[in-house]
Every structure is written in C-alpha cells, then in structure tokens.
Amino acid sequence: MPSRKDPDASANVPSFYGAELRYLREQAGLTLEQLAEGSWRGISLLSQIERGERRMPEDLARHVDAKLGTDGFFMRRCEDVSRAKRSGHAEYFADVVEMEKSAESIEEWAPALIPGLLQTRPYAEAVIHTSLPWLPPDTVESQVRARLERADIWEREVRPAFWAILHQSLISKPLLPPEAMAEQLEHIAQVIRSTQGVLQLLPETTTAHPLMMGMIKAMTFPDAPPLIYTEGLHSGQLIDYPALVKNYRRSYDLLRATALPPETSLAMVEQAAEDYRNGKRKE
C-alpha cells in the first residue's frame, strides 16, 4: 500500500483547513467513516476536503464542529467565505481582507497592476472590466466598492507599516486616460506620504530581477507568524510555511536592492502625474 500523502497546509486556504481537519480528526481518534457518521455526507467528500480539493459545505462544517468539539472553527470559515461573496471579494481572498485589518506591516510587489490598497475607483473599474468583462454591472460595482473599502485601513489611528515596489511600466504605460491616470498617481503619492509608507519603482530597463514570476504580498502580525500571499487571475494562495516565507522575504529584500530609491521613485510618480495633467504624456 502506498504511503499516505499529507496535504500541504501552505499551498492555499482549502489545504490549510483540510490539514487542520485531518489533524483534529486524528487527535480525536476518529476515522473518516466515524466522522462522517450522522452527517448525511460521504467519506469521499471528507477525504477530498482533507486533501484541500474541496471546500467544506455549511451543514458539514456544523456537524464537524459538533463532533470534534472545535467551537465553531469550521463554521466560521464557511461564514467568512459567504461574507466574502456578499461583499464582492473572491473566496480565495476572504482571509487576506481580514488579515490586512490586523497586519502590523504590509509589503507588496506589483509587476502588472497597481495594488488594490492604492487603487482609485476608475482604475479598479478598468481592471475588473478588462480582466472579467463578462461580469454584470451590479457585480462589477460590488467588487469595485469592496476593493475601495479595503483602503479604510489608512484612516485608522493605528495602521500597518506599508512598503510597495511597483514596476515602472505601471506609470509609463497608463491603463487610464491622462486625467484619470494623473488622479491615480496623485492618490498613490498621497497615501504614501500620509501613511509614512515607502514606495519604490523597479526600472523598466531591469530585464532580470528577483520575483520575476509574479506579485506577492507579505504581511506580519503582532501576535501571529508572518504570511505571504500570491495571486493569479482566478486563484490565490496563502503561504505560512516558515521556510517558504523566509525564501519569499529574502527575494523581496533583493528586489528592494534592485529598485530605485524611495525618494527618487516618489518624485517620478509625482512628476508623471503632473505630466499627465499637463498633456505631456499620452495614452
């Protein structure tokens, strides 16, 4: 018989909860059959959930919490997903939204899009319309509103330290018409200055650099281990495995060293905003 393959809890959110389910079930001394008993669900579904291949439905979460005595742990996860859907966030992003609120620091690498925490409404609308053109208008509005509401953390008395590295092409190759692009860049500068954040630009002439494969968001917390979040078009991945987090952090530090100095970068953003306003830059 082949050895059992344990789920990689760092792979994504379903894998994390699947690994936790298996751990708690085995701690309780229950087989899959015993845990499924009385749930009206098959053991194959439980097995898929433990492997991170399926999300847990609400009725099963309620059953598992009662059987394992987990005080609503899995039910709260279902509620988080439902809340994310209602609020306009993707399921895989639900945990990130909550974590941003309690983060001590947030660091972003943005190679293709201005980070959501820095976006204006026109930019958010353009991103969603371009990447998901089939969405109905009310869904687009819900997603735009949800994205803008995340920026409420900048209005708090205690807010996360913020560091963002943007590819220079994000300001030199505008997604928006000149006036709207000027507004977007002015907004970035205003957030960075008002929050005492740090902004760096990676020059367009840099052909090889760390983290060439895509965006990352790194978050630290006052009372929890650090996390890394990566994202594709239709999926996202939360990483908390210490060795992987360490490697991502090392790559991010190398990227900082490759990018332009903060003062130079912020001046370039503000100059680009002025140029767009004065018609010196074209779409």
Question: TL;DR?
Answer:
Helices cover 50% and strands 13% of the residues. With 283 residues, the chain is of the alpha/beta class. Strands 3-2-1-4-5-6 form a 6-stranded mixed sheet, sandwiched between helices.
Question: Which descriptors would you attach to this protein?
Answer:
283 residues; alpha/beta; 12 helices
Structure notes:
The structure is a single chain. By secondary structure, this protein is of the alpha/beta class. It has twelve helices and six strands. A six-stranded mixed beta sheet has the order 3-2-1-4-5-6, sandwiched between helices. A hairpin with a 4-residue loop joins β5 (224-231) and β6. The longest helix has 17 residues, at 178-194. It is elongated, with a radius of gyration of 21 Å. The mean pLDDT is 88.
The secondary structure category is alpha/beta
Uncertain residue ranges: none
- Backbone CA Rg: 21 Å
The biggest sheet, with number of strands, parallel, antiparallel or mixed sense and barrel status, is: 6 strands, mixed
Q: Quick one: how many beta strands?
A: 6
Overall mean pLDDT stands at 88
Separate helix tally: 12
DSSP helix fraction: 40-55%
Largest sheet: spatial strand order: 3-2-1-4-5-6
Sum up the overall morphology in one term: elongated
| Helix-strand pattern | HHHHHHEHHEHHEEEEHH
* % residues in beta strands: 5-15%
Distance between the termini: 62 Å
List the helices and strands and how they pair.
Layout: H1 13-27, H2 32-36, H3 43-50, H4 58-68, H5 73-87, H6 94-102, E1 105-110, H7 121-131, H8 137-149, E2 161-167, H9 169-172, H10 178-194, E3 198-202, E4 216-221, E5 224-231, E6 236-239, H11 242-258, H12 262-277
Parallel strand pairs: 1-2, 2-3
Antiparallel strand pairs: 1-4, 4-5, 5-6
Helix pairs in contact: 4-5, 7-8, 10-12
